[in-house]
Amino acid sequence: MTTADAAFHSRLRDVRWGLMLSLLTILLGFGLGGLFGGIEDTLKGRLQASADAAPESVYAGDAAKKKSVVDKSWGYLKRAHLHGGAIGSVAVGASLLLAALKRPRSRTRGLVALALGLGGLGYAEFWLLAGFAAPGLGGTDVAKEAFKWLAVPSAGFLLLGLAAVIGLTARDLFGDPRPA
Q1: Residue 179 has pLDDT above 70, yes or no
Q2: Residue that wins the pLDDT comparison between 177 and 31
Q3: Please, are residues 87 and 158 in contact by the beta-carbon 8 Å criterion?
Q4: What is the mean pLDDT of residues 125-136?
Q5: Which residues of 99-132 are buried (b: 16+ CB within 10 A; e: fewer)?
Q6: Taking CA atoms, which of 73, 101, 108, 148 is between 20 and 30 Å from 43?
Q7: What are phi and psi of 92, to 5 degrees?
Q8: Predicted model pTM
């Protein structure tokens, strides 16, 4: 292994936890896509059964509202699938970019990658949980509120992580070319 290879491998190890969480996020997104292709009717049936099992006071006999919530819940499950694949892929790319930079300290690299990985996985999970919970709760707004504790920090981690990657990349590529 050359010195450059060893140095990159060391920096890659700095981002390993965030990288693995990001890969798990992609797996979640792709796995949901596979489930949709294989058991879409079963999943939609579960959403409908959850709405049907909700207390009478939740829908007050309003079949149109129930259908609307079930349909929107299915959309939330699709969001979990899409967010998992997309955000996970961006987090992997950003983590690899962090590993390629020479400037950030090992700890900084690791924390930023971890924020991206946790944020991506948490945000995809938020949409999944909200989608499954909404029919039983009587609405998607109620479900989003119920899982706000997961959505807000996850989105925050993602935004802070991405801002840090942009800043660290700019500093490394546009700053003083001498090593820090």
Answers
A1: no
A2: 31
A3: yes
A4: 98
A5: bebeebeeeebbbbbbbbbbbbbbbbbbbbbbbb
A6: 148
A7: -65, -50
A8: 0.93
